[in-house]
Amino acid sequence: MPIVKYPRATEPLWHEWDKKAQKCGLRHTVYAVNGDYYTGEWLDNLKHGKGTQVWTHARAIYSGDWKFGKRDGYGSYSILDPVTKEYKKVYTGWWKNDTKCGYGVTFYPGVERYEGEWSSGLRSGWGRMYYQDGSVYEGQWLKDRPGGQGMLRLPNENRYEGGWKDGKKHGPGKFFYLDKGQLFEGTWAADIPKCGILIDFGRAKAPAPPQYPIPKV
């Protein structure tokens, strides 16, 4: 009588099918014990290719590219809005080694958003930040703060153009007081102007110029 071998109790058939599907790169859904699940492509039992990961307790979703088990390539990360009960995108862009890296857009609470480059999950490189009060910063970033050369435009259209360090005005720069028709050109240190000159600049078209013009040197 031939001997029939059955799968071991610790290795059910569905588990064997899961591993085969993963190794073959097929789209497949796998659930974790905590309720999280992934639907997408696999390679050698790792998420690889296109896929969607759902974190049920964190109420978050990532949909995009994977490489050997990590988010890598282009994808979007969304979280559940407690008010609307709908998922809204928090970040859309490029990833590397499971962190934001490359160009991407991040949406913060309210109307704030950042469009630009990332490195190791931090804003680094060129980028534009829209703030809650209506201000806009456009320029270089370093370790999640303005650093290098950039321009800050205020809600009243006044603006600063020049150097930045650790998120503060630092180094040579110009501040355009367009509401008064004046220009200050000088040097800043940690957001404080240390020295420079103040001249009239477009005074005739300014909405609220000072009573007296600045005497010419």
From TrEMBL:
Pfam family membership, one: MORN
Main location: cytoplasm
GO cellular component, one term: acrosomal vesicle
Keywords, alphabetical: Cytoplasmic vesicle, Repeat
InterPro entries: MORN (IPR003409), MORN3 (IPR052472)
Spans traversing the lipid bilayer: none
Subcellular location, record wording: Cytoplasmic vesicle, Secretory vesicle, Acrosome
Function text: Assembles a suppression complex (suppresome) by tethering SIRT1 and MDM2 to regulate composite modifications of p53/TP53. Confers both deacetylation-mediated functional inactivation, by SIRT1, and ubiquitination-dependent degradation, by MDM2, of p53/TP53, promoting a proliferative and cell survival behaviors. May play a role in the regulation of spermatogenesis.
Protein known as: MORN repeat-containing protein 3
Organism, as annotated: Nycticryphes semicollaris
